[in-house]
Write a structure and sequence with these properties.
It is built from 10 helices and 5 strands, in the order βαβααααβαβααβαα. The chain has 218 residues and is α/β, with parallel strands linked by helices. Strands 2-3-1-4-5 form a 5-stranded parallel β-sheet, with helices on both faces.
Length: 218
Amino acid sequence: MSVITISREVGSGGDSIALELAKALNYRLVDKAMLEKILKQFGFVQFAQDYEAAASYWDRMDGTRLDMVTTMNRVLQATASLGNVIMLGRGSFAVLGEYSNVLNVRLQAPFAARVKRIMAERKLTDLATAEKIVKESDQVRASFIQSWYGLRWDVASYFNLVIDTGIVSDDTAVEWILRAREGAEKFTAEYKRSLGSLVVDDAVVLRAVREMFENNAA
């Protein structure tokens, strides 16, 4: 299994779980910060702000946003073609879901548990503020996936493994993902294409991804 995508609800512990997975497997972790650096090279300097914009923003598609998402998809595909990566969010499960070498994981938790975690992580004391953060994040992510891929963000059938981190510890989640990874490629090879069939003919994008990996490893 050369690629693991992780779709996570805010407050579900997805970032820390992805980091621990990357360490355990010695895989590269591709997160928002790395994608932002690459997309800036192609002129999308406000990627982070655009992605985190209000849900209604993604309902009003225009040429600039279309170009940004199209380029992001090309970057995700180029990254996957290099193998041994963990992709955190950004619709990676939708872009790569048809390939057998990809394990698609969703991390979720009850609303109250996520609010509690956000309060602890961000040192918030106001419950209403934390609840607003969680609700708005859910709306933005759901709108993004629906607008650009025509999929429901929270449908379990799009994923190979769904974990409720409200009752499963981060360590156990990492263990389960590692175990699922061992057999996933074998059991999906009969009805999904191999990543080897993914042809990335965009040399510019591929070079940008390779350079980013090299710079991060330095």
